Amino acid sequence: GPAKDPSSAGMALETAVSLAPEREAILVRNATIRLENNVLRPTVREAIELLKPVAPGRARVMELALEASPDGKSFSGSPELVAKARELVSMYPRSRPAHTLALEILNADYAESMEGNDFPRITRSYENLVDFTIATVEQFPGDQEIPVLLSNVYMGGGEFERALEAAREGRRRAGRGEKFENVLPVIMIEARMGRYGDAVRNITPYREEIETAVRNLGPPPGNLPPLEQMSPEMRRMVSDRRTKLQRWSLLINCLLGNGEVDEAWNVFSGRPSMDPGASRAFLSGIETAPPEAAVQAGLRMREVIPPGPPRLRLIGALLAAHRE
Predict the structure, then answer these.
(1) Average pLDDT, the chain
(2) Residue-level pLDDT at 318
(3) pLDDT the model gives residue 4
(4) Is residue 111 classed exposed, middle or buried when 0-12, 13-18 and 19+ CB atoms within 10 A define those classes?
(5) Contact assessment for residue 85 and residue 102, using Cβ atoms and an 8 Å cutoff
(6) pTM confidence score
């Protein structure tokens, strides 16, 4: 039989597979976890072989994922891999995992094309990625995530109006179960386009949720080890903290961009104590504010920034607001 896996996760997976060796859901989970876990990754080929008789399509997707991302960190987008991804999608047109993998590979192809000066290749890769993502949006009409992926592609290509349209489609698909995550891409694009009035209207229903999440944060963690040395639990905690602060910063940015200095200051006043990122959030908002609002916000900020070098960033933010 296959070599025993010494890790507790590996043993748990082996037990699950031995209890239900023909259950597709368990075999898929077994292979997926091994594919995504760096410690278990060397054992993934055996897991894929077990999956083949039960779900050949899923097994083919995982084989290609392993080929396209041998290190498990980033995908490659070689012409050969792009061809294999397209072939897989044509064989399994209703497979969401096949489409997701093809999107990753086409995205990698576009990213790689951007590294050179071959402009026909850049154009071709971008158009291929856009066309395939649009087709995927249409193929899975109930999926909320794929329109957001399309929106990201358009943003990368500088097509902001189309990006906004795609993000709104993702939001529309969320329907009555809409959460902040569904509206967030729309708000971010509106802010990027300088449509702060729209962004404020869309973020306001979630303002209390955003402010409460930041108020409840403890003090910032001390010296943290590098990301790859963190435990999964610590990595989750750091990521969760960063996400909450980013959303809070976006709220401040939208309010300042819309000239609502008092409201932005009220939000800023609920900042987590001793967190250096909090002041940076308000300063970056000043940079995008209308000139008059930027001056008002700068005067407020001067109250909390001590004289000397720390004020250089404030001066820089005010200059940026007046750049036009």
Answers:
(1) 86
(2) 83
(3) 47
(4) middle
(5) yes
(6) 0.82
For residue 51, give both structure tokens.
């999956």
pLDDT of 252 > 90? The answer is yes
The whole-angstrom separation of Cα 284 and Cα 267 is 14
Instruction: Give ∠ CA 97-98-100 in degrees, rounded to 5.
Output: 60
Q: How far apart are CA 122 and CA 112, in angstroms?
A: 9
Using CA atoms, how far residue 309 sits from 77, 128, 312, 314, 315, in Å, is 46, 49, 5, 10, 10
Distance between CA 86 and CA 29 in Å, rounded? Answer: 24
Average of per-residue pLDDT across 29-47 = 76
**Residue with tokens 């294999």, as numbered in its chain:** 84
What is the residue type of 276?
A: P
Note whether 85 and 64 are within 8 A (CB).
Answer: yes
Residue 185: closest CA among 207, 142, 155 = 155
Q: What are the phi and psi torsion angles at 235 (to 5°)?
A: -60, -40
pLDDT band of 1, cuts 50, 70, 90: very low
Copy the structure tokens of residue 6: 């010494």
Which residues make Cβ contacts (< 8 Å) with residue 241, sequence separation at least 6?
217, 220, 221
| Phi then psi dihedrals of residue 102, to 5 deg | -60, -40
State mean pLDDT over 234-254.
91
